[in-house]
Specification:
Oligomer: single chain
Radius of gyration: 20 Å
CATH class: Mainly Beta
Number of domains: 1
Helix content: under 10%
Order of helices and strands: EEEEEEEE
Strand content: 35-45%
Largest sheet: 4 strands, antiparallel
CATH superfamily: RNA polymerase II/Efflux pump adaptor protein, barrel-sandwich hybrid domain
Strand order of the largest sheet: 1-3-6-5
CATH topology: OB fold (Dihydrolipoamide Acetyltransferase, E2P)
Shape: elongated
Length: 81
C-alpha cells in the first residue's frame, strides 16, 4: 500500500527565497562611503579605484563620489571618482 495520499500536490512546490542580488547604484549616480554598489556571487564585477570587495563579494564604496563602470582585458571594473 502506498503511504502518500492521493493528492500529493505539495511535494514539488518548494522554492528558495530571492537573494536580491545585482547592481544597486548605477553609473553616474552619487554614492557615499560604505554604500553598496553591487551585490554578487563571485566576481562578475571587480573592485576599482575607490571601491572594496566584501567577504561575500559585495562591492562597496570607500570614498564619496560618482560611480563609473569600465572594462579592461575582458574584466569589468567599478570605480568611484
Amino acid at each position: 500500500m502506498a503511504h502518500t495520499k492521493a493528492s500529493g500536490v505539495t511535494k514539488g512546490n518548494r522554492d528558495s527565497i530571492a537573494k536580491r542580488l545585482g547592481v544597486k547604484v548605477y553609473a553616474g549616480q552619487r554614492v557615499s562611503p560604505g554604500g553598496i554598489i553591487v551585490r554578487q556571487r563571485g566576481t562578475k564585477f571587480n573592485a576599482g579605484v575607490g571601491t572594496k570587495l566584501g567577504a561575500d563579494d559585495t562591492l562597496y564604496a570607500m570614498t564619496d563620489g560618482v560611480v563609473n563602470f569600465s572594462q579592461k582585458l575582458g574584466k569589468k571594473f567599478i570605480h568611484v571618482r
